[in-house]
Each structure stands twice: as C-alpha cells, then as structure tokens.
Amino acid sequence: xxxxxxxxxxxxxxxxxxxxxxxxxxxxxxxxxxxxxxxxxxxxxxxxxxxxxxxxxxxxxxxxxxxxxxxxxxxxxxxxxxxxxxxxxxxxxxxxxxxxxxxxxxxxxxxxxxxxxxxxxxxxxxxxxxxxxxxxxxxxxxxxxxxxxxxxxxxxxxxxxxxxxxxxxxxxxxxxxxxxxxxxxxxxxxxxxxxxxxxxxxxxxxxxxxxxxxxxxxxxxxxxxxxxxxxxxxxxxxxxxxxxxxxxxxxxxxxxxxxxxxxxxxxxxxxxxxxxxxxxxxxxxxxxxxx
Length: 291
What we know:
The chain is of the alpha/beta class. The protein has eleven helices and nine strands. The strands form two sheets. A seven-stranded mixed β-sheet has the order 5-4-3-6-7-9-8, with helices on both faces.
C-alpha cells in the first residue's frame, strides 16, 4: 500500500483494497468501502466525505485483515457480522446462510397473501421451514402484528443466531423457534407455510459460497430438488383449509418444482412469481377451502 512508516489516507487504503479485491468481487469498491467503514466504526457516508484523513495504524491493520479475508472470498456480511434484509438489519455469521435480496420476493408474496386473507384482528399461523438466520420469520412478524410464527431449522447453531435476531427486533413473543427436520416439529397445521429450502447442487455453486456458507442450508441433492420432495410430501397435512404454501426456487427450477407441487396438491392453484430481475423465484400454492 505504502511504506510501513507512512501515514495512509482513506483514499489510499480504498485504492489498495479495490485492487486487491478486483478479481474476486464484482462489487470491489462497495466491498472496500463497507469494510473500511466497519474497521473505523463509521458510516460509509462519513468515509466518503473524509478520504483525505489518515487511518490509525491499529485500524489499518484491522482493515488489511478484513480485505485479506474478503480476498479469500469470505462474504462481506460475515466480516461485518450483519446483513440488511427487507429493510431490517440481521445478525449473521458462518452458522447461517447470508440473506439474499431475491428472498425478499418470498416475503413480499407472503405479506400480500396474508393481507388479502385475513382481517387485521385475525390471528394468522405461519411456519417458516429452514429459518436459518430467522430473516423471513422476523420480517413477517414485524410486518404482520397479527401473526404467530413457528421458525423451524435442523441446525441448533442456526437457531441460536435466529434467536438473536428475534430478540433484536422485539418479536420473541410471537416467533417460536423449533429444532427439527422440516415439518416434523410443527405442533399444529398453519395458515401459511413459507420456505427457502436448500436448492443448489453444491458442486455447481460459486466458490466463495461453497467455501464459507453452511452446506446444510445449500445442498439440494444431486438435482437440487431433494428437500422439495420431502417438504411437499408432508405439506398437505400441515396446512389448514384455504391455506397457502410459498417456496423459493432457483431460476431454472419452476417447471420441476411445479410438477412436484401438483403431485402433492392436485386441486390447488399454482403460480410462479418473478423476482425484481424477472427471474422465476417463488412458487405460490393456494389450497382450496374444504367443501
């Protein structure tokens, strides 16, 4: 960057880090700004307005270490310990998958269904299967004051992170954490099932994701559909009449997942919803009321 004894400005530190990250990140400048702001304990706005200021040596060493970890493809969210999702900040670390913007499509679909389905005073029962950091469950609880949410995950480590986020957003009284496999811990049928299940083929995903994020939350088996098969087989008994099931999918999985849905719910209405980039992202299943 410079000689060890020289004073390093924020601008110089950013220039070095952008170059260091150029080959591993399509957002190298943004990554560098976020990491520098984190090392300084500042906002990005303050960093960008203070580029001529120098960095204390201890902070510079911290920043260099963060950049080196990012250069090894560790997600920025793990390096700073948080990630924004649906306008809310979540605690994240290597125990949970980093929340993706695409998953916000699932939350939006759930909120739209819930608001059409019930009056504001009606209690809605929701189950989030594979809750991970709890980002879906918490977002739904925050935006649906009439909802009670079961947040289920097979990983006790993931649930420990989810508990932090539930407490952070003051929804502990309405979100119940359950440890177990898919729907097995669910104590009663619910109005709405939501899930962002593992749907990737491990060997096909980005190296940084494969190296650093939990495989339990990623591995969808040889064809990416293994968890959908098991989840859909158990879902009819877990839904109340006139309920709904919302599943996040990979962009190329709409036809395969829809076929599995129709086998499990032959009389249900099925739609495929796009994300903001226009890619297939959510399969929405509406169960008819009991005659």
